[in-house]
Design a protein that fits this description.
Layout: H1 3-17, E1 26-31, H2 42-49, E2 53-56, H3 62-65, H4 76-95, E3 112-115, H5 122-134, E4 138-143, H6 151-163, E5 166-170, H7 175-182, E6 192-195, H8 203-207, E7 213-217, H9 222-231, E8 239-244, E9 252-257, E10 272-276, H10 283-286, E11 298-301, H11 308-317, E12 321-324, E13 328-331, H12 337-348, E14 353-356, H13 359-371, E15 383-386, H14 389-396, H15 413-419, E16 432-438, H16 443-451, E17 455-466, H17 472-480, E18 485-488, H18 491-501, E19 509-512, H19 515-523, H20 537-553, H21 569-572, E20 583-584
Parallel strand pairs: 1-4, 1-5, 2-3, 2-4, 6-7, 11-12, 11-18, 14-15, 14-16, 16-17, 18-19
Antiparallel strand pairs: 7-10, 8-9, 8-10, 9-20, 13-17
Helix pairs in contact: 5-6, 18-19
Biased composition (Polar residues): 9-19
GO molecular function: uroporphyrin-III C-methyltransferase activity; uroporphyrinogen-III synthase activity
Domain Tetrapyrrole methylase: 26-261
C-alpha cells in the first residue's frame, strides 16, 4: 500500500467522521397577549409548543409558559434523572417508616426556560439570544402583549436584526384592546390609549384626546391619573372603571368615577387597565366575562388525575376556578388471572353480554385484549351494554356499537337494570354476563342481574387506590370553606376525599353526579345540593352552574368566607353622600374572599 494512498484514506476518514456544521438557529419574538392563553394566536401556540428554549418576561402567566416545549420529546437523560429522584424519595419514605409512597412530582418537560431580568439592558439580553441562535438553536423570546409595541423589546429586535441572525415576530393582542372588551366596555372605532406607568404623559393633550381613554397603570398611579385629569379640566363625575387580572379567571372590574378613582381600595395586582369616559356605562349591557354563573368560584374537582381535565375545562367555561385534587389512582389488578380468563371466555363465546360501567372498564378490557394480539373482532357474537353516554362513546371508539344503554334521564346502574333483558333459556343459548369493573363496585348491579336470571362473572378489571393527601393549604381550604363548591363524580371520590382531606365545610355547595354518589355523600353526613337528571360529567357541571345562577337570582348565595385579617374601620365606614361606591362587576364578592 503506497504512502500516498494511506494519507488520502486518513483524510477521507477524517472528513466523513467530522460532524456536518449545524444549521443556524433563529430567534422568535412571540407576543403572549393580555394573559389568557386562549387569546394566543395559532402561530404563537405552534411555536411555543415546538420550541424548548425560551427567555420569558416575568409578567407572562404560567398558563402560557406551560405550553412551551409541550410537543417536544423529553430527553432521556431528564426522564432518567426524574426516575432516580423519585426512587430516592421512595427510599427516604421507607427509611422514615412511611406507610405510603410519596406523591410523584410533576413529569419533566423538555423546556429550558430562563426568566428575563427586567433590569438587564436590552442589548445584553439580545446578545445572549444571538449566541443561542448561532449555536444552532431556536430560542423564543416570550413577552406579554405585543412585541412591537414595547420599547425594550424593539431594542432587542434591532440588535438581533443587526447581527444577521434569522428572526421572526409573532404579534400578540394588547391589553388596551382586549381587556375593556372582557370587561364589557364598547370602545367603539376611536379611543386613546397610553401607558401611564412607563411613558411621559402630556395630560393637557390627553384630556382633549378622543374618548374613551384606555390607560395602563399600576395601583400607585391611580391618584396621579385622577389628580392630573381633573386639574386639566375633566369633570370628576366622568365614569371610569379599573380592571385587574384582565382576561383571566381572576379578572375583577370596579366601577368608579374620576373623582373617586384615587380612593379605590381593592386588591389590585399587576398591570391595571383604567378606562375613562361615557363608554364605561355600556358595561351594564355588554358585561359577559364576569357575569357567567360560576365566575370566580373555586370549585374542588376530586377525581383520578388522568380524568380531571375535561371536567376542569367545562367548569372554566362557566367561569369557575377549578382545583383538581386527585383522590384515587387507577392500578391494574393484583393478579392478572381473572382478566386473562375473561379474555379467553370472550373469544370462546362464554358470554352473552358484557356490561361496561365506566370508561376505565373499557380501557382495561381493550388493553388486555391487545396483550394477546386481539382487537374488537374478539367481541363477535357478544352483546355490549354501557351504563352511560360517555362509556358508550368509548365503546364506539373501538369500532363497536353498544346494543343497550339506559335512557338519557336514567343513565345509572338503576336505569341500566330497568332496561336490561331477562334471561330466557329457550332464547338465550348462553346465560352468562361479564362485568369488568373496579374493585369497589356496588353489589346492587350484580344482585339485579342475578334477579333477571343471569349468571355474572364480576371481575376486577382495575383497582382504585386512595391517593396521598393533598397539601396542608388545600386541606385547610376544604375544611374552612375556601372552596365554594365540590363536584363528586363517583362514590369512591366522596369516600376518598373525606378520608384524605376531611369533610367539606357547611357553606360549600355539594354536587353529586348520580344517586349512588349522592347516597355515598349522605352516608358520610354531607348535604347534597345538586344532582343532575343525566348522570354524566357535562350534565353535572351544567346543573351546578344552573343551581348557582338560581340562588344568585333569589339572593340566596352562601355568605362569603370571612377573612381572618380584621378590616380597618375606614374600610367599613359609610361612603359620603353623593359619592359612587366602587363595586366589582356582577355585585358578587370574589370567591373564597
Amino acid at each position: 500500500m503506497s504512502k500516498e494512498f494511506e494519507i488520502n484514506k486518513q483524510i477521507s476518514t477524517a472528513q466523513t467522521s467530522t460532524d456536518a456544521p449545524r444549521p443556524a438557529g433563529k430567534v422568535a419574538f412571540v407576543g403572549a397577549g393580555p394573559g389568557n392563553p386562549d387569546l394566543l394566536t395559532v402561530r404563537a401556540r405552534e411555536i411555543l409548543a415546538n420550541t424548548a428554549i425560551a427567555v420569558v418576561d416575568g409578567d407572562v402567566l404560567d398558563s402560557v409558559t406551560e405550553i412551551i416545549a409541550s410537543a417536544v420529546p423529553v430527553p432521556e437523560e431528564k426522564l432518567e434523572a426524574a426516575r432516580r429522584d423519585y426512587e430516592r424519595l421512595v427510599e427516604e419514605a421507607k427509611a422514615s417508616g412511611a406507610r405510603r409512597k410519596p406523591p410523584r412530582p410533576p413529569a419533566p418537560t423538555a423546556a429550558e426556560i430562563t426568566a428575563a431580568d427586567a433590569a438587564e439592558p436590552p442589548e445584553e439580553r439580545a446578545a445572549r439570544l444571538i449566541e443561542t441562535a448561532r449555536a444552532g438553536e431556536t430560542v423564543v423570546r416570550l413577552v406579554s402583549g405585543n412585541p412591537l409595541t414595547r420599547e425594550a423589546i424593539l431594542a432587542e429586535i434591532n440588535a438581533v436584526a443587526a447581527s444577521g441572525v434569522d428572526f421572526q415576530v409573532v404579534p400578540g393582542m394588547s391589553l388596551p384592546s382586549t381587556v375593556p372588551s372582557y370587561a364589557g366596555i364598547a370602545l367603539g372605532p376611536t379611543y386613546t390609549e397610553t401607558d401611564v406607568s412607563t411613558e411621559k404623559v402630556d395630560w393637557a393633550r390627553l384630556v382633549s384626546a378622543p374618548q374613551p381613554l384606555v390607560l395602563q397603570a399600576f395601583k400607585e398611579d391611580l391618584a396621579t391619573i385622577a389628580g392630573e385629569l381633573v386639574s386639566h379640566g375633566m369633570p370628576e363625575e366622568t365614569p371610569a372603571s379599573v380592571t385587574t387580572h384582565g382576561t383571566t379567571r381572576l379578572q375583577r372590574t370596579f366601577d368608579v368615577t374620576l373623582g373617586t378613582l384615587a380612593q379605590l381600595d381593592a386588591e389590585l395586582a399587576g398591570k391595571l387597565v383604567v378606562t375613562i369616559g361615557s363608554a364605561v356605562d355600556s358595561r351594564s349591557k355588554y358585561s359577559w366575562w364576569e357575569n357567567r354563573p360560576l365566575y370566580g368560584w373555586r370549585v374542588l374537582v376530586p377525581r383520578a388525575k388522568s380524568q380531571a381535565g375535561p371536567m376542569s375545562a367545562r367548569l372554566a367555561a362557566h367561569g369557575a376556578i377549578p382545583q383538581e385534587v386527585p383522590t384515587i389512582s387507577l392500578e391494574p389488578p393484583r393478579t392478572p388471572a381473572q382478566m386473562e380468563r375473561s379474555v379467553k371466555g370472550i373469544v370462546e363465546g362464554r358470554y352473552r353480554w358484557i356490561v361496561f360501567t365506566s370508561v376505565n372498564g373499557v380501557h382495561a378490557v381493550r388493553d388486555k385484549l391487545a396483550e394477546f394480539g386481539l382487537d374488537a373482532r374478539a367481541f363477535a357474537g357478544v352483546n355490549i351494554a354501557a351504563v352511560g353516554q360517555k362509556t358508550a362513546d368509548e365503546v364506539r371508539s373501538l369500532g363497536l356499537s353498544p346494543e343497550l344503554t339506559p335512557p338519557s334521564d336514567k343513565q345509572n346502574l338503576r336505569g341500566l337494570l330497568e332496561v336490561f333483558p331477562t334471561f330466557v333459556e329457550d332464547i338465550d343459548a348462553v346465560g352468562r354476563v361479564l362485568l369488568p369493573r373496579a374493585d369497589i363496585g356496588s353489589d346492587a348491579l350484580v344482585a339485579g342481574l342475578k334477579e333477571l336470571g343471569w349468571e355474572v362473572d364480576d371481575i376486577v378489571a382495575y383497582r382504585t387506590v386512595r391517593a396521598a393527601p393533598p397539601s396542608a393549604d388545600i386541606r385547610s381550604m376544604i375544611k374552612t370553606g375556601g372552596f365554594d363548591a365540590v363536584a363528586f363524580t363517583s362514590p369512591s371520590t366522596v369516600k376518598n376525599l373525606v378520608g384524605i382531606a376531611g369533610k367539606p365545610h357547611q357553606r360549600t355547595i355539594i354536587a353529586a353526579i348520580g344517586p349512588s354518589t349522592e347516597q355515598a355523600a349522605r352516608d358520610l353526613g354531607l348535604r347534597v345540593d345538586v344532582v343532575p337528571q343525566v348522570a354524566d360529567m357535562p350534565s353535572l357541571v351544567d346543573a351546578l352552574a344552573a343551581h348557582v345562577a338560581a340562588l344568585r337570582a333569589a339572593g340566596q348565595l352562601p355568605p362569603p368566607k370571612k377573612k381572618r385579617r380584621a378590616r380597618k374601620k375606614a374600610e367599613t365606614a359609610a361612603p359620603a353622600a353623593g359619592t359612587k361606591t366602587p363595586q366589582p362587576s356582577g355585585g358578587k364578592p370574589a370567591a373564597g374572599a
